[in-house]
Amino acid sequence: MIRITTGSRPQVSPSAAWRPITQREVAERAGVSQAAASYALAGSVTKVSPATRERVLLAAEELGYQPNLLARGLRGVGTGLLGIIVRDISAAASAEVCRALLHQAPAVGYDMLLTDAADSAKTLLRLAGIMKSKLCEGLILVGELPDQDVLWEEYEKLGVPTVALLQGARDLPITKVAVDNVAGIKLALDHLVALGHTRIGYVAAEWMHGLHDRLEAFKELSRHMGLAVRDTDIVCQEFSREGGAEALRNFLTKESLPSAVMVATDLMASGFLREALRQGLQIPVDLSVVGFDDITEASLTYPALTTIRQPFGDMAAAALVCFAEQKSSAGMQSDIILSPSLTLRESTTAPASRSALRQLEAQVAHK
Q: Residue 94: which of 148, 147, 164, 142 has the closest Cα?
């Protein structure tokens, strides 16, 4: 009961303290048996009719019913919880994947818990242990860590079904959903060659295995296609917008310039384009630029960035299917590799004439 004191602040007696709503109360509210309510709340589509299930779910919502996840876990029903541990939630590609996971999870019967490993394998292991204790049925790891090589031996001891995203091509002791980086680089090179470019530079990023895969694919495919790639045409910088800007400044110190540049990620490409504008270069007339990822920012750069699209939505869907299928099979399926696509925008065109490039190089030399 609620008593009104002279201070006019409601006081709740101990007997009126909050307590969880039970399935019995939901059943009474819906006018069904407790067994029917239990089946409906567990998501059964065979034990109760659609009309009964709808009545039960409406009653549960009206009463504020919350399932007892511990009890469900002990009964072997499954808690319906998955945990996401992301390397860095501020990283654009990771954020795109997480957004897709959170959006799609309810449709396949899962709720998600999201947390950030802050670029630390030690922190990831601690968070994974916490999520396991919170009865997560499985974990999704998004993005690579700088110290990831020290992670896997300890991680396996947790015994939690896991899917990894944005991890590159290397073998992992867990299921991986990844994009085909080699196919993506080939799409970009084919596009630039079709435009007439024969000398193409590359901006690489430090330490990440997935981005190293892209660099190695660029080198191998360039040789195979007979492209003239000089050592000075490959620049490695920090994985950031400022790293992309520094890469552009680095190119401007060279004796001569390629007519096109591939950049390992859209994030770096956005910094590259911003610095090109500041330096007075006309993209794509002076220099064509191609990125990789197709994050939201790629369509907002100036000019809008031609890039290789990672299918973030498909990656999220494939990861969730892994957990759904695990319930009816012996374990997780093998790695899933998805195909990228080319998104054409305004940052690429046919190369300038050789005389125009010489004029540009002369202008750069006088800066």
A: 142
pLDDT digits 0-9 by tens, 123-144: 999 999 988 877 788 999 999 8
Element (DSSP H or E) covering residue 64: none
Distance CA 111, CA 88 (A): 21
What pLDDT does 301 receive? 96
Please give the Cα distance from 249 to 246 (Å, whole number). Answer: 5
Partners of residue 261 on adjacent β-strands: 201, 289
Count CB neighbours of 31 within 10 A: 12
> Which candidate, 96, 146, 90, 97, places its Cα nearest to that of 122?
146
The secondary structure element, H or E, covering residue 52 is: helix 50-63
pLDDT of residue 229: 85
Cα 222 to Cα 301: distance, rounded to the nearest angstrom? 27
First to last CA, the chain: 80
Q: What is the pLDDT of residue 133?
A: 79
Query: What percent of the chain has pLDDT above 90?
Result: 49
Give me the torsion for CA of 340, 343, 347, 348, rounded to 10°.
80
Nearest-angstrom CA–CA distance, 117 and 95: 13
What is the pTM (predicted TM-score) of this model? 0.76
Residues in contact with 218: Cβ distance below 8 Å, sequence separation at least 6, in sequence order: 185, 189, 202, 262
Cα gap 72→94, rounded to integer Å: 31
Write out the E strands in 117-252: 138-142, 162-165, 175-179, 200-205, 234-237
Is residue 315 within 8 Å of residue 338, measured between CB atoms?
A: yes
Helix (H) or strand (E) holding 28: helix 23-30
Sign of the torsion angle spanned by Cα atoms 20, 26, 29, 33: negative
Report whether 280 contacts 242 (CB < 8 A).
no
CB-based contacts of 176: which residues, under 8 Å, 6+ apart? 163, 164, 165, 167, 335, 336
